[in-house]
Amino acid sequence: MPAIEVVLYSGAIGLSIIGLTGLLLLNNVFRMLLALVILESGVNLLLILSGFRLAGVAPVILPEQLSNLSAIVMNDPVPQALVLTAIVIGVGVQALGLAMILRIKAQYGTLNMLKIREQLEFDLAVQSGVATPVSAHSPVSLASGRERQLSNHKDEQ
Amino acid sequence: MRNIAGLLFAGGLAFLLLVLASYLPYGQTPMFLGDAILAHAPGEVHTANIVAAVLLAYRGIDTLGELSILFTAAAGVGLILGHRSLRSDSAGVNGAVNSEQHSGFITTRAVDLIMPLLMVVGFYIIFYGHVTPGGGFQGGVILATAFFLPVLVRPGTRIEHGVITLLEGLAGSGFILVGLWAMFYDQPFLQPIFDSFLGTGPLGSLWSAGSLPLLYLAVGLKVGSELAGLLVTVSEVPELSETNISDADDINRK
Question: If contacts are CB pairs under 8 Å, which of residues 59-118 in chain A contact chain B?
């Protein structure tokens, strides 16, 4: 197995795994978005590698090459076209995720996923009128969350 | 516990992928489609850049779908951040401190100088997309950067959303119109057209490849206006002034 192959494949797979691990382990929502970006680039690299040929050139034809077209080895253009659009779409998806994060920050004032989940459960319970999931031994954050919720309601009114 | 499970999962997946990769033939493509396209594209589509031929001729409808995905993302950002409560008070605040928020003389002048050059480079990459490695997607991103740089150095600058939306709609409908134009010649939707006057030059010249440059121009304008609109919408969100110290603590603790 040539050394360059090991480097390229383990680089692509390693990037994907770093991104995936970040998605699984991080609690900060913005960092999760960055992990998603890393995961995307790893997957794109893997896709590009599938169209790679040893001694291949970029699939652009020069006019003087037209006569002996079969003599030149070119890389597969299909994965390149796929990745080209995937990168641009990735930017769009990242912008959408960033917009959601900005909204979450404006609404809850935190980026910690655990806190956001707590507050979301509380809000859902308030909206639907069921008993709030608060026990007598509830942590402090829930209580402060409730106060914040009440003050928000006052502000809106 | 959750961390250990996540690490185990990631490690297992890495092992699986590495084992799979070690069985792949390296240096030769596993697909036959690319070879067929490489053999036929110069004669069929007359583009020097075969990636452009794949993108606009062989997978034209997919590209239309990808443009619609971009549109959906932009519409989603507008829906999430366009709420009045998020931006109502921002105009006054930003307008008041506008002059103090400038990034300094050198940066603003440099951006004023660079912006037209960036526009030229973007349009060059779009127009030569079927001849050189480039095209609508890359050029569109450069155009979006050219539009966004002035907003970046002068925070609080209001940009007219109507122009961006109009350009975006025109580009999108232009792409579909070129596709419908092919049906006028009894061809399938989005089939490349080689008319008597349209793109009849020899391979490698600017005036070649039929209707593909028109499609690439539409893609470039669409991507550019879409991304510029996205960036401007995100940048118009008022400064999240409630940034408290607790978040910084959260980050530091990890």
Answer: 59-63, 66, 69-70, 74-81, 84-85, 87-89, 91-93, 95-96, 98-100, 102-103, 105-106, 109-112
**Nearest one of B145, B151, B102 to B120, comparing CA atoms:** B145
pLDDT value, residue A149 = 53
Q: What angle do CA A96, A100, A105 make, to 5 degrees?
A: 145
Q: How many residues does chain B have?
A: 254
- Provide the pLDDT for residue B84: 61
Q: Which residues 15-54 in chain B show a CB within 8 A of chain A? A: 17-18, 21-22, 24, 26-31, 33-35, 37-39, 41-42, 48-51, 53-54
> How far B241 CA sits from the closest chain A CA (Å)?
9
Scan for tokens 């039929």, then name that residue.
B210
Supply the ipTM of this predicted assembly. Answer: 0.78
Strands (E), A7-154: none
A111 within 8 A of A28, measured Cβ to Cβ: yes
**Contact assignment for A111 to B250 by CB distance below 8 Å:** yes
Calpha distance A1→B145 (Å, rounded): 42
Judge residue A16's burial from the number of C-beta atoms within 10 Å of its C-beta, 0-12 exposed, 13-18 middle, 19 or more buried: buried
Average pLDDT across chain B, whole number: 80
* Percent of chain A residues past pLDDT 90, beyond the cut: 20
Burial class of A154 by CB neighbour count within 10 A (0 to 12, 13 to 18, 19+): exposed
Nearest Cα neighbor of B155 from B232, B243, B242 is B232
* pTM higher than 0.80: no
Half-sphere exposure of A23 (CA within 13 A, CB side): 15
Write out the two tokens for B28. 């030769």
Where exactly are the structural domains of chain B? 49-239
pLDDT digits (tens, 9 = 90+) for B105-140: 888 889 989 999 999 999 999 988 888 888 888 899
Residue B141 tokens, joined: 């991103």
pLDDT tens string A59-88: 888 877 777 777 788 888 888 888 988 988
Q: How confident is the model at residue B93 (pLDDT cuts 50, 70, 90)?
A: very low
